[in-house]
Amino acid sequence: MAKHTRVFNGSDGVEWGVEVRMPTASNAMVVFHHPSGRTSGLNRYAWHQWHGPEARSVTSRVSVDTVMKTLSDDVLALLFRRSMPISPGATPLSGVLNWNT
Fold first, then answer.
1. d(Cα 94, Cα 58) in Å, to the nearest integer?
2. Into how many domains does the chain fold?
3. Residue 80 domain-assigned?
4. Which of 13, 41, 63, 77 would disulfide-bridge 87, Cβ 3.0–4.6 Å?
5. Distance of CA 18 to CAs 36, 73, 81, Å?
6. Three-state SS string across the chain, please?
7. What number of other Cβ atoms are within 10 A of residue 33's Cβ?
8. What pLDDT is attached to residue 51?
């Protein structure tokens, strides 16, 4: 796993690697890496809203370590429930009507 990671146990028993990316003043991307590998199409992401003092300044940036320290198991469970696939999958538009027919 990368330097700034920890493990999150999903409700189905899968151990996801958790990484914080792209921190700004008011949010950071939390990436859930599926145990099958970092390039897996099963990886997911969610945005974690930051409410610290950095959020009131457009020129500041919260550190990855600081965000990681605030990610309790409860916060990770909430973020995981709200997460979205990083990869669209094999048929990303399945179920969308084809207007050309």
1. 40
2. 1
3. yes
4. 41
5. 14, 11, 14
6. CCCCEEEEECCCCCEEEEEEECCCCCEEEEEEECCCCCCCCCCEEEEEECCCHHHHCCCCCCCHHHHHHHCCHHHHHHHHHHCEECCCCCCCCCCCCCCCC
7. 24
8. 76
- What pLDDT digit, counting tens, does each position of 73-93 carry? 999 999 999 999 987 765 555
Asked whether residue 97 is domain-assigned, the answer is no
Judge whether 78 lies within some domain. yes
Residue 17 φ/ψ, nearest 5 degrees: -85, 135
At 46-80, the pLDDT tens digits run 999 987 777 677 777 888 998 999 999 999 999 99
Token pair of 76, please?
């990770």
Domain membership of residue 20 as a residue range: 8-36+47-85
Residue 61 included in any domain: yes
CA distances from 35 to 14, 17, 30, 79 (A): 8, 7, 16, 18
